[in-house]
Write a structure and sequence with these properties.
Blueprint lengths: L3 H15 L4 H12 L4 H6 L7 H40 L18 H14 L4 E2 L5 E2 L1 H4 L11 H4 L4 E2 L12 E3 L4 H9 L6 E10 L11 E11 L4 H16 L5 E8 L2 E14 L5 E14 L1 H6 L8 E7 L1 H8 L13 H11 L2
Parallel strand pairs: 1-5
Antiparallel strand pairs: 2-4, 3-4, 5-6, 6-10, 7-8, 8-9, 9-10
Helix pairs in contact: 1-4, 2-4, 5-9, 5-11
């Protein structure tokens, strides 16, 4: 290149490039030496002032100088990028051979487990899951189920009576927190769906248990109804046997005993046999009631527009809270709602899951 002005520019570039320690500073040097307002670009503006025979040589020398500058800039950029990557790897170094941080594995709540099992078994028989409001009209919670206002069953199921958000009562009396999920069955039958009607209804229910602190004010229930032509008590017993053994195992022992429910007639209770070791070491059999059932009362069928002479129904209700406690040998139902992780961890380990 041999021209003093070009040599001076290249010398200044080498000085500036030697002081670069980061990619950001390198960008500043690039703009200073190759930008539109750089001295090198200004030299190209002088070409028109030269003699015609000198123009080509001068332009070639300027372009060679620019190519040399850009080549060194790229080389320095690669060097700096590699250095920055090495520093980042050094800062963020991780030994992949070390064991990772293990996250605690969750498990299904015992109540959810029992509900899901009941739903799974009954869906095989064509049953459909339905839901309904927890704040209910007394008509669906009581009257439609053959439990009139004066009926003693309303005393048996101590009730939370509530108003709506504005304190108003419902169109058929004060609103209540449902005392059983049978109210969902009433809502389904009120729609008069085509036969057969096969509905299961799990959910929370509420009882006013202020007098007895040993009882829960909120617990979980699971109701089932089947309305069709030709259903008999034999269908009911077969359905309940199938469900109980699906939950407790094929070797589970159950028994049926007479009961009273205003919604069904005749009515039965189902007991589950439990073996308990006494203080003297003897093993005794204890029978625990796990559900109530029966043939749907003719008055209930008539109330929803069905003819009891040609249509029959079977229904049952079980407390999934009690079933979960029995399934896992939990002595106190309240423990299922207290959120004690020690209990749930023990259940999880015991299940082997």
């Amino acid at each position: 290149m041999g021209r003093p002005e070009i040599e001076a520019l290249l010398k200044q570039f080498e000085t500036d490039l030697g002081e670069v320690r980061s990619l950001a500073v390198l960008d500043d040097v690039r703009r200073a030496h190759t930008g539109k307002k750089s001295p090198l670009k200004s030299l190209l503006g002088k070409v028109k002032d030269l003699a015609p025979e000198d123009r080509a040589v001068f332009a070639r020398d300027v372009n060679d100088a620019q190519a040399a500058i850009e080549s060194e800039l790229e080389a320095r950029k690669t060097e700096l990028a590699r250095a920055e990557l090495d520093q980042q790897l050094e800062r963020e170094w991780l030994d992949l051979t070390l064991p990772g941080v293990a996250h605690r594995r969750g498990a299904v709540h015992p109540l959810t487990e029992v509900e899901a099992r009941c739903v799974e078994m009954l869906r095989q028989l064509g049953f459909e899951v339905k839901d309904g409001p927890e704040v209910e009209l007394p008509y669906y919670n009581f009257d439609a189920l053959n439990i009139p206002e004066h009926h003693p069953a309303r005393d048996m199921q101590d009730t939370f009576y509530v108003g709506d958000a504005a304190g108003r009562e419902g169109p058929k009396g004060p609103l209540v927190l449902r005392t059983h999920t049978t109210s969902i069955q009433a809502r389904v039958l009120a729609e008069k769906p085509p036969l057969p009607v096969r509905v299961i209804a799990p959910g929370r229910v509420y009882r006013n248990e202020a007098v007895d602190a040993s009882h829960l004010a909120c617990f979980h229930q699971f109701d089932c109804i089947w309305v069709d032509v030709g259903l008999t008590f034999g269908h009911l017993k077969g359905l309940l046997s199938f469900l109980c053994r699906s939950i407790y195992g094929e070797r589970a022992r159950i028994r049926f005993k007479p009961k009273y429910y205003p919604y069904t007639e005749p009515s039965v209770g189902v007991d589950l046999a439990r073996e308990v070791r006494g203080a003297d070491g003897r093993i005794d059999t204890v029978w625990v009631t796990i559900l109530g059932a029966g043939m749907v009362h003719p008055k209930v069928l008539q109330g929803f527009g069905y003819d009891p002479e040609s249509v029959s129904g079977i229904a049952f209700g079980l407390g999934t809270t009690r079933m979960a406690a029995e399934r896992h040998a939990i002595p106190y139902l309240r423990a299922l709602y207290e959120g004690d992780l020690r209990l749930f961890k023990a259940l999880h380990r015991g299940s082997g899951s």
